[in-house]
From TrEMBL:
PROSITE patterns: HEMERYTHRINS. This is Bacteriohemerythrin. Keywords: Iron, Metal-binding, Oxygen transport, Transport. One of its GO terms (molecular function) is metal ion binding. The keyword Metal-binding applies. It comes from the Bacteria. It comes from Pseudodesulfovibrio alkaliphilus.
Amino acid sequence: MALMQWDEAMSVGVEELDAQHKTLIDLINQTYEAIERQDESQLPRLVEKMAAYGETHFASEERFMRESGFADLEEHKFHHARFRSTVDDFRRSVKSRTDLTRIFVFLSRWLAAHIMEEDMRYAPHARGR
Ligand SMILES: [Fe+2]
């Protein structure tokens, strides 16, 4: 069974964004499984998946915030930019260091601190539309 499972408590009230958040949970599980198998060869693939996640998801989420008039869009974009720059750091270190655990910790923290805190700020806004 996967380590982490999506839960209604994680819903931001927008189907498309929830579906994308589920892919982040998949990514956390895949990273965890690679750590368990001690399969460091998965590292570049996982980093590329994180980058693709950021590209697709942040664009959708920021579009939703813009269209629905969410007031804290600019501050939220700053958090997304930090995710992107951390993924860039991982990309640069893929060749020199292998570190699945750092990716796992980063993504798990992102789920807890970003999705469950920052994204939840627009959830009532989404439901109230
Ligand atoms: Fe977000």
